[in-house]
Amino acid sequence: MAIVLVTGATSGFGEACAKKFAANGYDVIITGRRQERLTALQQQLQQEHKVAVLPLCFDVREQKAVSDILGNIPEQWKAVDILINNAGLALGFSSIEDGDLSDWDTMIDTNVKGLLYVSRVVMPWMKQRRTGHIINLGSTAAKQVYAKGHVYCATKAAVDSISQGMRIDLLPYRVKVTAVHPGAAETEFSEVRFKGDKDKADNVYKGFQPLTGQDVADTIYYCATLPPHVCINDLVITCLQQANAYYFDKE
Ligand code: NDP
Ligand code: 8X3
């Protein structure tokens, strides 16, 4: 059976993707930093869908952990068909002058460097098999910059550029690369951004019906299951009341 590797599978899009692919018979490698959530998801997917699940607990920012843990998985799991580079986050919402330097480091280290570290381990496996599909989570924030979003938007613009570069690298090996750019989706994203302030997080989604993790997982699954000769390179998905990264028509 085919294998999908989902980074950041303990919540939001990643968790929804793990469930979607498992429900369709894929074996899944799930990663994240929260071991208890990985274990609970592993048990759920194994029981409900009878698929094999490999949980890997590591921080994508730690290059050595990525190469030691992911790089040394059992040989049969290295036949990864689909890598979903999803782990990521925004932290803070302020002008550059008021920005928190450690928030910037965390966003850059996770969204850009973490994605590269994971890809660097998996890409040779796909190249060797001359097949595979890498799906990178960008954002509408990759396409336009919104006020007080500077560094987060820049990390997602980097994901956009890295996806284009990966596609050039991997084309001779017939490995697909898709960048998926969702708009506002209600997951744990805003709770993380506002450091647990639930009121601020809820306020982000007032006056419109945002995307859900399921919407994004369904779209990713569609991209991943097209015929072998077809590749969606770049896909922007928003809810009906969002036109671009910063323009909403709220009630
Ligand atoms: P969630 O906060 O719900 O999920 C984020 C996931 O990333 C968690 O599983 C978390 O796992 C993991 N993660 C974060 N940091 C690390 C790290 N250092 N190492 C390993 N895993 C990490 O957010 P979403 O599902 O909404 O976000 C998923 C992706 O989609 C992100 O890249 C985000 O930027 C992007 N995105 C989100 C949008 C939205 O509106 N929600 C819109 C567009 C893009 P754990 O904490 O267990 O490590
Ligand atoms: C996440 C979407 O608009 O909250 O990438 O930054 S937004």
UniProtKB/TrEMBL annotation:
GO molecular function: oxidoreductase activity, acting on the CH-OH group of donors, NAD or NADP as acceptor
Any Pfam family: adh_short
Segments traversing the membrane: none
Swiss-Prot/TrEMBL keywords: Oxidoreductase
Family of this protein: Belongs to the short-chain dehydrogenases/reductases (SDR) family.
Protein name: Short-chain dehydrogenase/reductase SDR
